[in-house]
Design brief:
By secondary structure, the protein is an alpha+beta fold. It has helices at residues 2-7, 12-28, 51-69, 75-81, 83-103, 110-118, 131-140, 145-165, 173-184, 207-217, 236-240, 247-256, 281-295, 299-309, 321-324, 326-332, 366-400, 403-409, 430-436, 470-499, 504-513, 542-546, 579-612; strands spanning 40-44, 47-50, 124-125, 128-129, 186-194, 226-234, 266-275, 316-320, 339-346, 349-359, 415-416, 448-450, 453-463, 517-520, 559-560, 566-575, 615-617. A four-stranded antiparallel β-sheet has the order 14-5-16-15. A four-stranded antiparallel β-sheet has the order 11-6-13-12. Strands 8-7-10-9 form a four-stranded antiparallel β-sheet, with helices on both faces.
Length: 623
C-alpha cells in the first residue's frame, strides 16, 4: 500500500485526501486539549504524558490511516503499524523539542499565532479570515478558542525549533543532479524463464525415490480429524418472529434508543467536471488546478466555471456519506460550508465539489420509523428467547441423547451434516466444528454462542487424524517427486545458460538452445518504479537490478518466478534523464532532498536527547 502512495504521490486524488487529513490535525492537534486521564503513560525529563494524550494521539493516527487507505486499512494492518508505539514516539519527540525550546527561550509570539490561524483555509471565506467561521468551526468540534490557540502556539514553537535544528540542511545542485539521475534512470531487461512444467527428458521417479519422499514428508499427507454432526441453531429471528410488542414497549424502546433513529448527515454540493485526458494526464491535472484556484474565490466564480465546463448545466444535489462513496465522502464530509473540495477522480473525469449547505443528523419521529422500531424490538425479544430455549434444549437433549427430536419440540429444525473438518462447512461455523472434534461419537456438546446465535450439536460419527499409508497416497507422492525433479532440472538448465553467457545476447541464445523462454521488459526505473509483472514474484530484486549496466550486464542469481518457475535477468539498454528533465524538476528534487536532510537532522538531535533525557515509559500504556 505504501508503494501505491509513492507511485501516486503526484495524484490530485491523493493530495486532496492528505490535505483534509492535515486539516483534521490542524483542528485537533497531535496531543489533546483536555486531559481525560491524569495517569502517566510516560514521563520525559520529569514532564508527564498522560494516558488521555496517548489515547487521543493514537485515535488521530488511526483516523489518518483510515482516511488514506479506506477499506484497505484492516485490523492486521493496524497491528503491524503498532499505532500506540507511533503515538508514544511522537509525543516523546514533542516533549523533547519543547523542552529544548524552553531552555533556549524560544516561543511563539501572539502575532505569529494570529497569522497562523488567519492563514488556515477552514477559517476563511473568499480567502479572507472570518471570526464567525473560526468560532463556529471550533464550536462544531467542541474546542474553545483558548484551547485551540494554546495548541497553535505549541505548533508554531515546534516549527521554530525544528527550523533552527535544520538550518544547515543545504543540498548542492550537483548532489541533487546525481540523485535525480539515479532515481530517473530507466532500463530494459531480458528475462529468461525456466518453467519446470515444460522441461523434457526428466527421468520418471523410481520406487526408491517415491518411498524416500513419503518417509521425509509423510506428515504433509496427514488426514485431519473429522466429524459428522446434528446441528440446531437457535437464532433471534426464529424466536422473535411471533413476538407482538405492545404500544408501551414500542414507545419506550423508541425513546430509549433515540440515537438509532436519526437522519443521516447530508451535504448540498455543486460540481465542476473535467474529462480526464488519458493521453496527457498531466495537462488535465494542471487545468483542474487552475480551475480550482479560480473556483475557490466564491460561489459566483464556482457557478460560472460549472456552466462553462458542464455545458451550461448547473445544479445542486444532497448527498449522504454513503451516496458520495469512500473517497469523495471523506473529502466532502470533512469540509465546512463554502469550501471547494477536489479534484477527485470520478470515473474518467476529474471533479471539483463545492459544499453549499449542511444538514446535520436529527431525530426522526416515531411514525416514520415505526416499522424499524417493531423489527428491532422483535429481534431483541427473539435474542432473549433464543438464549432461554437453547439452554432448555441442551438440558433435555443431554438427558435424552436425542438432539434432533428435542430441537423439533421447541420449533427448531436440526440438520445432519456430512463429514466436517476444523474449518467447518455450510451451517457449521469453524468454532462449532473445532469444539465437536474434541468430543467422542454420540456426545452432545455445550451450547456454543457466536454473536446472537446459539448452536447445539451432537457428534454422530468421528474419524481421528491419521497418516495414510503410502499405497493410499502413492499418486500424490509420485506427483510430488516428479515435480521436484523437474524443478531441479529447470533450475540447473537456467544456471547452465547463465554460466555460459557474458552478455544479454549470449544469455538469450543459450536460453533458446535449452528450450527456455525469453522476453523483454518495458522501460522502467529500477530505483523508483514498480518492477515489471514478469519480475513481480522475484522477491527483493530491486537492489540487484540497480547494479546492472552495459559493463555488468548479467546478474548471476537465479530468482523465483510465478508458479514455481525460475528467472534470470540481463541488462539490455538504458535511458538516462536529460538535462532538460532535470531543469524542469530540479526545484522539486532539491526541496524533497532538503526536507529529507532536515528530517534527518531533527531525528539525529532527538536520538541524542533521548540518550541524555530521562524518558520513562509505563509498559501498561503500550498494551
Amino acid at each position: 500500500m505504501l508503494d501505491v502512495l509513492r507511485r501516486n504521490a503526484g495524484s490530485w486524488a491523493i493530495k486532496i485526501i492528505l490535505s483534509f487529513i492535515a486539516l483534521t490535525f490542524i483542528w485537533w492537534g497531535v496531543g489533546t486539549y483536555s486531559e481525560r486521564s491524569r495517569y502517566a503513560a510516560a514521563t520525559v525529563a520529569g514532564e508527564m504524558i498522560t494516558m488521555g494524550e496517548l489515547a487521543e494521539t493514537t485515535a488521530n493516527l488511526e483516523k489518518t490511516y483510515r482516511e488514506v487507505y479506506g477499506p484497505a486499512f484492516t485490523p492486521e494492518m493496524a497491528k503491524t503499524l503498532d499505532l500506540k508505539k507511533q503515538a508514544m514516539d511522537s509525543l516523546i519527540q514533542r516533549r523533547l523539542l519543547l523542552s529544548e525550546a524552553g531552555k533556549m527561550g524560544l516561543s511563539a509570539t501572539d502575532d505569529e499565532v494570529q497569522r497562523e490561524i488567519a492563514a488556515t483555509p477552514a477559517f476563511q471565506a473568499d480567502g479572507v479570515f472570518r471570526e464567525d467561521r473560526y468560532r463556529s468551526v471550533l464550536a462544531y468540534n467542541r474546542v474553545t478558542p483558548a484551547e485551540f490557540e494554546a495548541s497553535k502556539r505549541t505548533e508554531v514553537t515546534l516549527k521554530k525549533m525544528e527550523g533552527l535544528l535544520a538550518v544547515g540542511a543545504l543540498v548542492p545542485e550537483s548532489e541533487a543532479r546525481e540523485m535525480f539521475q539515479v532515481a530517473s534512470r530507466k532500463v530494459r531487461l531480458l528475462v529468461v524463464t525456466a518453467d519446470p512444467g515444460k522441461i523434457r527428458g526428466v527421468e520418471s521417479p523410481t520406487e526408491a525415490e517415491i518411498a524416500a519422499m513419503y518417509d521425509q514428508s509423510k506428515e504433509s499427507f496427514r488426514v485431519p480429524a473429522r466429524v459428522k454432526l446434528t446441528v440446531a441453531a437457535f437464532t433471534p429471528e426464529a424466536f422473535g418472529r411471533e413476538a407482538q410488542p405492545t404500544e408501551e414497549e414500542i414507545k419506550a424502546f423508541y425513546e430509549g434508543n433515540s440515537d438509532k433513529f436519526r437522519s443521516e448527515e447530508q451535504r448540498l454540493v455543486s460540481r465542476i467536471v473535467l474529462p480526464f485526458g488519458k493521453k496527457n494526464p498531466e495537462a488535465s491535472r494542471k487545468k483542474i488546478e487552475e480551475i480550482y484556484r479560480e473556483a475557490s474565490k466564491g460561489k459566483a466564480e464556482f457557478t460560472a466555471l460549472a456552466k462553462k465546463y458542464s455545458g451550461g448545466k448547473v445544479g445542486e444535489v444532497w448527498l449522504t456519506r454513503k451516496e458520495a462513496g469512500a473517497a469523495l465522502g471523506n473529502a466532502v464530509f470533512s469540509a465546512p460550508v463554502d469550501t471547494v473540495v477536489g479534484p477527485v477522480e470520478v470515473g474518467e473525469s476529474l471533479a471539483l465539489f463545492r459544499v453549499n449547505r449542511i444538514k446535520f443528523p436529527e431525530a426522526l419521529p416515531l411514525s416514520q420509523v415505526r416499522e424499524r422500531v417493531v423489527a428491532m424490538l422483535k429481534r431483541e425479544k427473539g435474542k432473549d428467547l433464543a438464549v432461554v430455549k437453547a439452554y432448555e434444549a441442551h438440558r433435555k437433549a443431554t438427558s435424552s441423547k436425542d438432539l434432533k427430536g428435542t430441537a423439533a419440540s421447541l420449533g427448531v429444525q436440526a440438520t445432519e451434516t456430512g463429514w466436517v473438518g476444523a474449518d467447518g462447512a455450510g451451517g457449521v461455523p469453524p468454532a462449532v466444528a473445532q469444539e465437536a472434534l474434541l468430543l467422542p461419537s454420540g456426545e452432545i456438546g455445550p451450547v456454543k454462542t457466536l454473536g446472537d446465535t446459539h448452536y447445539l450439536f451432537q457428534v454422530t460419527a468421528k474419524e481421528d487424524s491419521r497418516v495414510p499409508s503410502l499405497a493410499e497416497v502413492r499418486n500424490r507422492v509420485l506427483s510430488a517427486v516428479a515435480q521436484e525433479k523437474r524443478a531441479v532440472a529447470a533450475r540447473a538448465a537456467l544456471q547452465q545458460a547463465l554460466a555460459a553467457s557474458k552478455t544479454a545476447g549470449d544469455l538469450e541464445a543459450n536460453a533458446r538452445k535449452a528450450g527456455l523462454s525469453a522476453t523483454v521488459t518495458d522501460w522502467f526505473a529500477p530505483a523508483t518504479e514498480p518492477v515489471p509483472d514478469a519480475l513481480a514474484a522475484a522477491g527483493e530484486i530491486r537492489r540487484d537490478l540497480s547494479t546492472l549496466s552495459s559493463k555488468s550486464p548479467l546478474s548471476a542469481k537465479v530468482y523465483p518466478g510465478p508458479g514455481g518457475q525460475f528467472l534470470a535477468v540481463a541488462f539490455l539498454a538504458e535511458q538516462a534523464p536529460t538535462d532538460a528533465e532535470f531543469a524542469r524538476k530540479k526545484d522539486a528534487v532539491m526541496r524533497g532532498m532538503t526536507e529529507q536532510k532536515k528530517a534527518a537532522m531533527v531525528e539525529a538531535f532527538l536520538s541524542e536527547r533521548r540518550k541524555t533525557a530521562k524518558v520513562e515509559i509505563n509498559p501498561e500504556a503500550l498494551k
